[in-house]
Design brief:
The chain has one helix at 2-9, and strands spanning 16-29, 32-45, 48-66, 69-84. It is mainly beta. Strands 1-2-3-4 form a 4-stranded antiparallel sheet, with no helix packed on it. It is elongated and about 50 Å long. The two termini are 28 Å apart.
């Protein structure tokens, strides 16, 4: 959790973002499960809406059943394609 927070904290706030998740596939085996989900993330510079960065990716998930429900215990984020300027999200151009 601490690693995820550190990696994403710098990207909170601008730019304007939209993340669409779809095509969930989960295999359950008792109290554990593995699965994947796809995301398309669109990032737009609020000062210049023509300055954008789009990413298509897949999350590979490991889940565990807890007393309060299913939780993601770990995930891998794999970029499948990208378009635009990664500087919009603080990356290198």
């Amino acid at each position: 959790l601490e690693n995820f927070i550190a990696q994403t904290q710098g990207s909170l706030g601008p730019p304007i973002t939209q993340h669409v998740m779809a095509t969930y596939d989960i295999d359950i085996d008792g109290d554990t499960a593995t699965g994947f989900r796809y995301v398309i993330a669109w990032h737009v510079d609020p000062d210049d809406p023509t300055h954008q960065f789009k990413v298509g990716a897949r999350y590979l998930d490991t889940l565990v059943r807890t007393p309060t429900g299913w939780k993601i215990s770990e995930f891998t984020f794999k970029i499948l394609w990208a378009d635009g300027d990664p500087a919009v999200v603080g990356g290198e151009s």
